């Protein structure tokens, strides 16, 4: 079966090369037909599990499409070459081809496809290179942002923010979260702004910057519905507890369902938060639910 597929692939390559030859009667190579034959060869190689040769055939297909100015199809072929490299566990090379494809999609005037390709690349590289994944998600977000596709841009920035937190790159995470929050505010998705404020405060406190954490909360008062909300109350209690070095209060808020059921990376930040100059955390007899209720907000809306 495999041998048959390999023979088939070689036949398609021979045909493709014939289409590319010029002669006295044929001045211009037939790039379109050549690309089609290379694509068939790639599929045959892939079915025969000859991934290296499949990758090469996809690259030749991409080349023929590029010569023909069929950039969308060229980019698709580059992505396929990338997927062959992924299957060969050669991830950094795979990502290079997908990035190159995304640039072609933008050039072709199909930015959405470019952003989705970068998002896919981010997911692929995430288990082995968090830094590269952040970079890919940020690139994808800015492509969507340029297209005024704020929801998609914010979601991708969200992925980048979480990975920055996971790497303890808190300065960059703070900037990323602020950008996310601004986008959700522009979309009038206020409840998500409140959640982003909790994430911001946790990041700023991990940076030991109480003033910046306090500022994040104060600026959220301008967002409708924040004043008096459970998010507002919890944040006020958290800042008060942190400022007064009250470990029990900080522990209660950080272990309340409101914070505990946030994205895992932020929940971990909450659990590991230590008050300045504090010793061991004491387990509070108060139930975690009390953390989100009880105290009013210190500042008016």
List keywords for this structure.
syntaxin binding; 301 residues; 15 helices; 72% helix; mainly alpha; transport
Kindly describe this structure.
- This protein is mostly helical and 301 residues long.
- Helix content is 72%, strand content 0%.
- It is built from 15 helices and no strands.
- The chain has helices at residues 2-20, 31-47, 51-67, 71-87, 91-108, 111-125, 130-146, 150-166, 170-186, 190-206, 210-220, 230-243, 247-254, 257-260, 264-271.
- Helix 4 runs antiparallel to helix 5 (91-108) and helix 10 (190-206) runs antiparallel to helix 11 (210-220).
- The radius of gyration is 27 Å and the shape is elongated.
What's a quick, concise take on this entry?
This protein is mainly alpha-helical and 301 residues long. It has helices at 2-20, 31-47, 51-67, 71-87, 91-108, 111-125, 130-146, 150-166, 170-186, 190-206, 210-220, 230-243, 247-254, 257-260, 264-271.
| End-to-end separation | 72 Å
- Briefly note the structural class of the backbone: mainly alpha
Task: List SSEs in N-to-C order.
Answer: HHHHHHHHHHHHHHH
Catalogue the unreliable spans. 279-296
Total E-strand runs:
0
Portion in strands: under 5%
**Count the helices. How many?**
15
* Mean pLDDT figure: 92
The percentage helix is: over 70%
Overall geometry comes to elongated
Radius of gyration from the CA trace? 27 Å
Q: Sheet with the most strands? A: none
Oligomer: single chain
